[in-house]
Every structure is written in C-alpha cells, then in structure tokens.
Amino acid sequence: MLLRGGVIIIEIIWNCDFDLYSRCFPKYNFKRFDLPFGETRTASGFNFRYANRFRKNGVEYRELYKAFGLRFIINVSGVGGKFNVVPLMMTIGAGLGLMSISVLIADCVMLHCTKKRKYFQKVKEIDLNFVNTQPKIARI
C-alpha cells in the first residue's frame, strides 16, 4: 500500500454518559476505503498526476509525475448526555398539553361527526340543580 497508495478511513466514536463519574474513552475503527490492487481494472489506491514545465536552452520541456501516497479520512462522531430537570419538565408539560387537546378533539368528533350527536350534546350539557344552601356560621 505504501508503494501504490491507499485510502484509509479512521472512525472515532465517542459514547459518553456524563451523569456517572467515569472517564470517557473513544472507540477507534480502521477500514480500507479503496479496493485492493488485484480486484479492480482502474487505478487503485491514492494517486494523482501533476506536470512540471520548464525551459532549458530555448527548448520547452514537460515532466509528468505520478505521485502515490496514503490518504486518511477521519470521521468523528458520538453522543454525550447528561440528565437535566428543565427538558424533563418541558416534555411533561408538552404531554399534558397534548392530553388536553385530545379532549377537545374527541368532543368535536362526538358532537359533529356521529349519528348520535344530539344524545352526546344532552349528556354533555346536563344541568344539575343543586340545592342552594347557605353555610351555617357558628357564633360563639
């Protein structure tokens, strides 16, 4: 690979939990990205050509170089997390808000989209006649 060049991918993966008091170490993976030299008809590895033009004694010359080398592609990814009360409370609040919206949607469906809408309207608007009693005040 050093003579004809090659492309190597280095993956560095960080998965850290910052709630625990432990050190976070990365995991490394090394893979060859290009095809080995016997498996392809095209140029394998990492190579490129460049030209050097110069003039010597009034004659213009051009030298073509083909360079080989190693190319490293480095991918770094990962997840780090830590518990926080604020996002938890925001999630709970959003859930409660969605629950209250579901009651409104159910009422709209029952009152406008069913065959027994008159019955549901009567049940929803039941007027309960409570006996209006004044609280008794104890006198000392």
The major pleated sheet works out as: 4 strands, mixed
What is the helix tally?
Answer: 2
Mean pLDDT: 83
**SS-based class:** alpha+beta
Q: What assembly state would you assign to the polypeptide chains in this entry? A: single chain
Cα-atom radius of gyration? 38 Å
Strand order of the largest sheet: 2-1-4-3
Termini Cα gap: 104 Å
Helical content, roughly? 25-40%
Strand content: 35-45%
| Helix and strand pattern | EEEEHH
Runs with pLDDT <50, length 5+? none
Instruction: Please give the number of β-strands.
Output: 4
Overall geometry:
elongated
Description:
The protein is of the alpha+beta class and 140 residues long. Strands 2-1-4-3 form a 4-stranded mixed sheet, with no helix packed on it. β3 and β4 form a beta hairpin. The longest helix is centred in the last third of the chain and has 28 residues. The radius of gyration is 38 Å and the shape is elongated. The N and C termini lie far apart (104 Å). The mean pLDDT is 83.
Features:
four-stranded mixed sheet; 26% helix; single chain; 140 residues; alpha+beta; elongated; 2 helices
